[in-house]
């Protein structure tokens, strides 16, 4: 009977095309607007590494200004990052910081160009499940021995080496020669959880080098730097200062490792306090990925306001749909009476009209996808400056599925009262007056 | 087959209480052709609705094919209507969006019949009323008389126990009305019981038995060709 009722729904649409189209439009607008914000929240607020987000932790060490009550800094100083990476106390760990530099491609006609890169430890790639197209990441010995190796992205490889495997080839970067050991496959976590301090929604880095090279090779920092007191002059003065500019992630496999590492941090900070550093009260913490994204309020505030407005618009559209469905279904009282006379019980009439409501919802959802796509393009204009990279603002298969399901079930829910009213008409009255 | 004893039907609103049927008793046997007559508002349609399980009764007993229907729920009543009763209405009540085939298909769908058997029955029903060739047409493409014949085919397709006809010729001209009556007589001759409400005394006289209702009660149940007497039931 499902396909029979579906056919009846199509015929009913044809009988009242204007009324039915109004309902479809109402659903499309409400669902489309809601799905624009849903998509943003889903992509921006989702867990970018769900398979191990509860094993990855960002450190918090409070090396902040003792004269204020501000929150602990979100990044680490160079002194602390160096000390922690040398202590090697976690199962896996990596400091990382954003850098910039100039690449000098080979060839007389090739022009140098600037790239954004990242200094990271060898563990970075394994910790964050970074996929490789060619080659492999460097190993810990490359970190220790300050080897000038690099991993580049697929796009950069395409630009420099025509997409072929460049493993072993030399790349002139920052006026030095780096040996390419690997090429990343497509990898663009959204948000860029490993560095939320430097716009988590901008484009990813194009080149990765061992973090231990960042300071000695005097790479330009491209990220967020905060200093609560002025550093001493010169590069060494900066490196030894309380300026924070480094992200630090650890991988801890279970609760026991988590406890042990936190204790290690506490011991480290206690030791630093003896040297006169970190005068604020002990406030060390480990935040897993989701906690970190929540703490850092990665989702822009604008989306929260837009979420509320979109939900209200959807509610208004559904209320309108209730009225329109009531008009449509009560207008069919005569037909309902005839069907009852011919043997339809209330259950079958209910099912027929639920399917009709779902049919309208499906049509509304399909058109709503168009509304959502247009809305997302608009969002790119509204938030584009804040988000810098907006390629990911688009409908993906899960969002399309949610749109259609939401449209169908929202319309069915809106239709419950009209359907109930319609199924409870007195057939005797309507049969005589037909 | 249809046995009503002391049926009472009261319609209540906030302001008024109307007794549409009062102490109404009627027995209809298999194969009869019974016409129900009476002035407007006498209770004819109320009787028809109760007989067709479209209304419940306020008192009395109604046995349909030997079973008491008074305690039946919506599902059971719908099933009985589908299997045992065929309806024919004054305004035909065909569904305008469905072609003739699909209109007649409706009661069979609710019976859960398979597609092959449905098709066989529908084709036979359409053929019996001479409209098989127009099975893909919609009701708007037919005359009044043709539409009523389709409605009759729809009422018969499920082999009901009896037909309930509410002024089946009311919207037809005299010639067409006579054609429909002839068809109903043929149907009755083949064994189907028919209970027909009509204003038309000439049609009432064509039936084998006439029941005259006055103020919710049977004034006289008569054989054909005799005038009803205005006496209390």
Question: What does the secondary structure layout of this molecule look like, with pairings?
Answer:
The complex is a heterodimer of chains A (434) and B (233).
Chain A: H1 2-15, H2 17-45, E1 56-60, E2 76-77, H3 78-87, E3 92-104, E4 113-120, H4 123-127, E5 132-135, H5 140-144, E6 149-152, H6 154-161, E7 170-173, E8 176-184, E9 207-210, E10 220-221, H7 234-239, E11 244-251, H8 255-274, E12 285-288, H9 289-295, H10 301-330, H11 333-341, H12 346-387, H13 397-423, H14 427-433
Parallel strand pairs in A: 4-9, 6-8
Antiparallel strand pairs in A: 1-11, 1-12, 2-11, 3-4, 3-7, 3-10, 3-11, 5-8, 6-9, 7-8
Helix pairs in contact in A: 1-2, 1-12, 2-10, 2-12, 2-13, 10-13, 11-14, 12-13
Chain B: E1 2-12, E2 17-28, E3 33-37, H1 44-51, E4 59-64, E5 67-68, H2 74-84, E6 85-88, H3 100-110, H4 115-128, H5 144-156, E7 162-166, H6 174-189, E8 193-197, H7 201-206, E9 209-214, E10 217-223
Parallel strand pairs in B: 3-8, 3-9, 6-7, 7-8
Antiparallel strand pairs in B: 1-2, 1-4, 4-5, 9-10
Helix pairs in contact in B: 3-4, 3-5, 4-5, 5-6
């Amino acid at each position: 009977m499902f396909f029979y009722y579906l056919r009846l729904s199509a015929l009913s649409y044809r009988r009242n095309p204007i009324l039915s189209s109004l309902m479809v439009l109402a659903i499309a607008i409400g669902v489309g607007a809601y799905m624009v914000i849903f998509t943003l929240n889903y992509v921006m607020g989702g867990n970018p590494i769900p398979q191990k987000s509860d094993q990855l932790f960002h450190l918090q060490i409070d090396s902040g200004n003792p004269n204020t009550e501000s929150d602990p800094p979100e990044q680490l100083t160079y002194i602390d990052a160096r000390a922690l990476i040398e202590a090697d106390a976690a199962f896996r760990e990596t400091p990382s910081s954003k850098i910039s530099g100039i690449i000098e491609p080979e060839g007389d006609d090739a022009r140098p160009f600037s790239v954004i890169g990242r200094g990271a430890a060898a563990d970075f790639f394994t910790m964050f499940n970074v996929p490789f197209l060619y080659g492999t990441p460097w190993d810990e010995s490359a970190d220790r021995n300050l080897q000038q190796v690099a991993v580049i992205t697929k796009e950069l490889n395409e630009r420099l080496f025509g997409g072929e495997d460049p493993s072993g080839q030399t790349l002139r970067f920052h006026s030095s020669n780096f040996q390419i050991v690997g090429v990343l496959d497509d990898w663009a976590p959204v948000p860029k959880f490993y560095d939320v301090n430097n716009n988590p929604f901008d484009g990813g880095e194009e080149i990765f080098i061992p973090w231990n090279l960042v300071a000695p090779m005097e790479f330009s920092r491209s990220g967020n730097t905060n200093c609560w007191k002025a550093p001493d002059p010169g590069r060494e003065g900066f490196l030894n200062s309380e300026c924070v500019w480094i992200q630090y992630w650890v991988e801890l496999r279970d609760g026991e490792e988590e406890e042990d590492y936190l204790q290690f941090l506490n011991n480290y900070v206690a030791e630093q306090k003896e040297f006169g550093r970190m005068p604020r009260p002990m406030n060390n913490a480990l935040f897993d990925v989701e906690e970190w994204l929540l703490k850092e309020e990665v989702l822009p505030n604008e989306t929260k306001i837009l979420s509320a407005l979109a939900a209200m618009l959807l509610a208004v559209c559904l209320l309108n749909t209730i009225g329109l469905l009531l008009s449509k279904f009560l207008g069919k009282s005569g037909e309902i009476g005839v069907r009852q006379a011919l043997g339809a019980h209330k259950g079958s009439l209910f099912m027929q009209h639920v399917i009709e409501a779902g049919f309208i919802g499906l049509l509304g959802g399909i058109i709503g996808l168009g509304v959502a796509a247009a809305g997302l393009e608009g969002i790119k204009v509204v938030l584009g400056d804040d988000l810098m990279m907006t390629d990911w603002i688009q409908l993906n298969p899960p969002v399309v599925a949610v749109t259609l399901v939401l449209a169908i079930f929202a319309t069915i829910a809106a239709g419950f009262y009209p359907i109930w009213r319609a199924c409870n008409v007195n057939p005797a009255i309507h049969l005589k007056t037909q | 087959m249809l046995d009503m004893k002391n049926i009472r039907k009261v319609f209540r609103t906030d302001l008024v209480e109307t007794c549409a049927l009062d102490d109404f008793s009627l027995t209809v046997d298999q194969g009869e052709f019974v016409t129900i007559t009476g002035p407007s508002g006498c209770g004819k349609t109320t009787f028809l609705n109760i007989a067709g399980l479209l209304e419940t009764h306020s008192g009395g007993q109604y046995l349909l094919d030997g079973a008491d229907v008074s305690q039946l729920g919506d599902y059971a009543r719908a099933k009985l209507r589908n299997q045992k009763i065929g309806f024919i209405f004054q305004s035909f009540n065909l569904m305008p969006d469905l072609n003739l085939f699909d209109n007649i298909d409706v009661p069979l769908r609710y019976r859960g019949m398979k597609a092959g058997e449905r098709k066989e029955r529908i084709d036979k029903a359409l053929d019996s009323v001479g409209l098989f060739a127009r099975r893909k047409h919609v009701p708007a493409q037919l005359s009044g008389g043709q539409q009523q014949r389709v409605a009759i085919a729809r009422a018969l397709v499920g082999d009901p126990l009896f037909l309930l006809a509410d002024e089946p010729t009311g919207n037809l001209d005299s010639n067409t009305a006579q054609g429909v009556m002839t068809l109903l007589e043929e149907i009755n001759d083949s064994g189907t019981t028919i209970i027909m409400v009509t204003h038309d005394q000439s049609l009432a006289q064509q039936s084998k038995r006439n029941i005259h209702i006055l103020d919710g009660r049977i004034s006289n149940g008569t054989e054909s060709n005799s005038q009803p007497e205005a006496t209390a039931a």
